[in-house]
Write a structure and sequence with these properties.
With 259 residues, the chain is α/β, with parallel strands linked by helices. 38% of the residues lie in helices and 15% in strands. It has ten helices and ten strands. The longest helix has 16 residues. This is Enoyl-CoA hydratase/isomerase family protein.
């Protein structure tokens, strides 16, 4: 079905999307941009999928962003005012896919890889993960990715990463400390197992509730407080009219972890 990514679904209502160009540092090209847009539409239409893991094929990098060897990128052709951001197709939120995303990062993560992190709901990584942005080192403006990243971490941390370019890499420990990731696993295998565990827990919840939560909070980032709260109340009422709620007594008895 796909050539640059792989896609599989599981019986526990979880889907896994794997960035699958390990020989090219899992960088994205024009074909992957289109395939990512297609897979988000596929997931959105599949009512059996309640949560998604996005990860990368094993190799040195989770992703190093755009494939710099590709010279005919479809989003860079034509008049400058007609060019568009590839994140519009790479990320789930810009494709209006509201099912929760758990992102599992290993190895190098830089540049355009942040399109996936920025639009994920839970991000975890392995100890070997390193985060940086090389744009300015190559004389390029770093813009779209860090703007998205300011929704996840403090402005100062974003600017330190982007202005230092290739001169500094953020460790997994620092990423955890500043809130870029919420958990660090000791190995890649442990990372991928943990991502599936988290996704399964999320997928076990009523999907109308989880999708509504993701959509409400994400859209609030583009709104003022009053507008966001008004929309939130509307979404709550929509959910209350649905048949997706569960018995509260049984929900309280479910086992839990302490983090």
């Amino acid at each position: 079905m796909f050539e640059t990514i792989s896609y599989e679904t599981h019986e526990d209502h979880v889907a896994t999307v794997t960035i699958n160009r390990p020989d090219a540092m899992n960088s994205f090209n024009s074909q992957m941009v289109e395939e990512m847009a297609a897979v988000w539409e596929l997931i959105k239409a599949d009512d059996q999928v309640h949560a998604v893991v996005i990860r990368a094929a094993d190799g040195r990098a989770f992703s190093t962003g755009k494939d710099v060897k590709e010279t005919d990128s479809i989003w860079r052709e034509g008049v400058v005012w007609s060019q568009w951001d590839p994140g519009k197709k790479l990320g789930p939120k810009q494709n209006e896919m509201w099912k929760p995303i758990i992102c599992a990062v290993h190895g190098l993560c830089c540049g355009g890889a942040y399109y996936w992190l920025n639009e994920s709901d839970i991000v975890i990584c392995s100890e070997d993960a390193e985060f940086f942005d090389p744009h300015v080192s190559f004389g390029m403006v770093s813009a779209c990715e860090p703007i998205g990243l300011t929704r996840r971490i403090a402005y100062g941390e974003v600017m330190r990463m982007n202005l230092l370019g290739n001169d500094e890499r953020m460790s997994s420990a620092t990423a955890l400390r500043i809130g870029l990731v919420s958990e660090v696993m000791e190995s890649r295998e442990a990372l991928w197992t943990r991502a599936r565990e988290l996704a399964a827990k999320v997928a076990s919840k009523p999907t109308l509730a989880t999708q509504g939560t993701v959509k409400t909070v994400w859209q609030s980032l583009d709104s003022g407080l009053s507008t966001a709260l008004d929309r939130a109340m509307l979404y709550i009422q929509v959910n209350n009219l649905s048949d997706g709620q569960v018995d509260r007594g049984s929900a309280k008895k479910s086992p839990h972890e302490v983090r």
